[in-house]
């Protein structure tokens, strides 16, 4: 059995765009006719350029290879061009192709991927979701409204979720870390207080940021949030200096979580050795794929850290997250988009879902999904904007900082 050909689907996400503007799903087929699917979570370049990278990585490092030889193919891609270091774009391309190899292997052996990775450790996976606007909410006002956030939280708790994520402390600028404004600190505290009062001990609060603060700025914000006992303080500083996370972790009495913008065990190993995170959040479509992320989870276990695979992408990455999570003794949570996503779930044949706050280990072969190619082709993405984009303007210290919660469309 040899890897023979690929097809890349660039899927435009309908409004409001939960999960980003588009998803990159790859289909890999072997010379004996078995096809597997994977998802690439890399968007430093536009989708057309990224498709070219995916095709090059496949042709250069994987075509004609036995899909079982994942370690060899990883080392080819990781070391290519005399680099031998983490590369978000190349490893993103490889990650999606690697997922597809596991999907092929599972189908060839008629077993779920997790059965080939150490077997079932977790029968049910505790899921969490962002707080998203409800149908009657003003979507623009939602992200800075404690009252609307509470309404959304109560619906999610009634659906069975026991962990809720929110991120009111914008803006996310391309300028790197900054000091939070007093408005943003106050808003963050008010939303935390309102949510804690509303949900009590029924759900953990997951305070999200996206690397927008300097270490000292993150510490100021984190210490203000401590009375509400969030389960984590997510990505408080930019991911380009891994040692900065340790400063925050040592000064704030909230567990630091991070990892969605990191790739391979090299970066996560540095983070963990420095004491920079209690919870790691690799995105499997960027972190090196399923096997590499299994190694990251093992590193975390050795350092007393837990794993919570990240998801702000499509349902194929979600399926890979679930397969990995089933095997991990140090699993904390898996991210979901609401109950699985109104556009996400049909794209994989409604094969996965959240029920009463948990995802049950799938039993179907491979990734356990039925990818709908016809639906994917019916939603092409023909624009040039990136999956997510950052604000150019600096932080506003005179008033509110507008934030749309990751929504890419309206």
Account of the 3D structure:
With 410 residues, the protein is an alpha/beta fold. It has a domain at 115-367: Enolase-like C-terminal domain (TIM Barrel). Helix content is 36%, strand content 14%. The protein contains 13 helices and twelve strands. It has helices at residues 47-61, 70-79, 88-109, 139-142, 146-158, 182-199, 215-225, 244-251, 264-273, 290-302, 315-327, 344-347, 373-377; strands at 3-12, 22-30, 35-40, 124-130, 163-166, 204-208, 232-234, 256-258, 279-280, 306-307, 334-336, 358-360. Strands 4, 5, 6, 7, 8, 9, 10, 11 and 12 form a nine-stranded mixed sheet that branches. It has a three-stranded antiparallel sheet with strand order 1-2-3. α6 (182-199) links the parallel β5 and β6. α1 (47-61) crosses α3 (88-109) and α7 (215-225) packs parallel to α8. The longest helix is centred in the first third of the chain and has 22 residues, at 88-109. The N and C termini lie far apart (45 Å).
Structural features:
single chain; 410 residues; alpha/beta; TIM Barrel; nine-stranded mixed β-sheet; three-stranded antiparallel β-sheet; 13 helices; 14% strand
Helices and strands in order, then pairings?
Layout: E1 3-12, E2 22-30, E3 35-40, H1 47-61, H2 70-79, H3 88-109, E4 124-130, H4 139-142, H5 146-158, E5 163-166, H6 182-199, E6 204-208, H7 215-225, E7 232-234, H8 244-251, E8 256-258, H9 264-273, E9 279-280, H10 290-302, E10 306-307, H11 315-327, E11 334-336, H12 344-347, E12 358-360, H13 373-377
Parallel strand pairs: 4-5, 4-11, 5-6, 6-7, 7-8, 8-9, 9-10
Antiparallel strand pairs: 1-2, 2-3, 4-12
């Amino acid at each position: 059995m040899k890897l023979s050909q690929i097809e890349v689907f660039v899927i435009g996400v309908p409004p409001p765009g939960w999960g980003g503007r588009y998803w990159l799903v790859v289909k890999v087929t072997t010379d004996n006719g078995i096809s597997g699917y994977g998802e690439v979570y890399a968007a430093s370049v536009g989708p057309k350029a990224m498709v070219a990278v995916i095709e090059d990585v496949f042709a250069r490092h994987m075509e004609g290879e036995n899909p079982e030889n994942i370690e060899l193919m990883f080392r080819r891609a990781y070391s290519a061009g005399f680099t031998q270091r983490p590369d978000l774009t190349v490893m993103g391309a490889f990650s999606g192709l690697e997922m597809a190899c596991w999907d092929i292997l599972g189908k060839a052996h008629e077993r779920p991927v997790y059965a080939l990775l150490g077997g079932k450790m977790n029968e049910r996976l505790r899921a969490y979701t962002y707080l998203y606007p409800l149908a009657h909410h003003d979507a623009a006002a939602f992200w800075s409204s404690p009252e609307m956030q509470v309404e959304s939280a109560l619906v999610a708790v009634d659906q069975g979720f026991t962990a809720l994520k929110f991120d009111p402390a914008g803006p996310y600028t391309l300028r790197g870390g900054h000091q939070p404004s007093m408005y943003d600190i106050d808003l963050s505290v008010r939303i935390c207080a309102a949510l804690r009062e509303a949900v009590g001990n029924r759900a953990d609060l997951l305070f999200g940021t996206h690397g927008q603060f300097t270490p000292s700025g993150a510490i100021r914000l984190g210490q203000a949030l401590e009375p509400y006992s969030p389960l984590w303080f997510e990505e408080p500083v930019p991911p380009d200096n891994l040692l900065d996370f340790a400063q925050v972790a040592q000064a704030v009495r909230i567990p630091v979580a991070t990892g969605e913008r990191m790739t391979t065990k090299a970066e996560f190993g540095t983070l963990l050795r420095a004491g920079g995170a209690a919870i790691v959040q690799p995105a499997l479509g960027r972190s090196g794929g399923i096997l590499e992320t299994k190694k990251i989870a093992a590193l975390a276990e050795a350092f007393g850290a837990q794993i919570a695979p990240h998801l702000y992408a499509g349902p194929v990455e979600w399926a890979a997250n679930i397969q990995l999570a089933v095997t991990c003794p140090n699993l904390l949570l898996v991210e979901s988009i609401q109950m699985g996503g109104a556009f996400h779930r049909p794209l994989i044949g409604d094969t996965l879902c959240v029920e009463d706050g948990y995802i049950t280990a799938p039993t179907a072969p491979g990734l356990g999904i039925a990818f709908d190619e016809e639906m994917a082709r019916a939603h092409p993405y023909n624009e040039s904007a990136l999956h997510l984009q950052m604000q150019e303007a600096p932080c506003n210290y005179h008033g509110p900082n507008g934030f749309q919660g990751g929504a890419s469309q309206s």
